[in-house]
Amino acid sequence: MSRVLDTQEFLDNVCQMLAEGRSNIPVPVAGGSMVPFLHHGDTVFLSVPDSPLKRGDIVLYQRSSGRYILHRIWKVRADGSLVMVGDAQQDRELIPSQSQVRARVVSVVHEGKPCFPGSFRWWRYAHIWLWLRPVRHLLMAIRGKRK
Prior knowledge:
- The protein is of the alpha+beta class.
- About 25% of the residues lie in helices and about 30% in strands.
- It is built from 3 helices and 8 strands, in the order H-E-E-E-E-E-E-E-E-H-H.
- Strands 1, 2, 3, 4, 5, 6, 7 and 8 form an 8-stranded antiparallel sheet that branches.
- The radius of gyration is 15 Å and the shape is globular.
């Protein structure tokens, strides 16, 4: 009989592996807060950040409630706190401490195709899509009507 893990328990295990020094841990994406860059069923590869976090990075962080969230950094504030936003969202969330960040996304498999930092697709969402945050809802509505 196979055992089913809930998301919280699964990500607790991933964070434990990261703390033990493992890297490039594959994690399936669940939910739609990072659409259009990531879709439900895509895979992200997580590693402990090995350089300073910056605008556009996608990170796995843990809220004070214990819930894990995978979102993009909208801004790194002077006090080190982070302002986060999902690619499908407009509302931003303040993360008071970078110690809440558990991992950074180092690569992605989107719709079966690998995507890495430095690729045009990655750059487009880490820069242009962030800049378009105030009008994303309109762009997503237009995109939805086209499909």
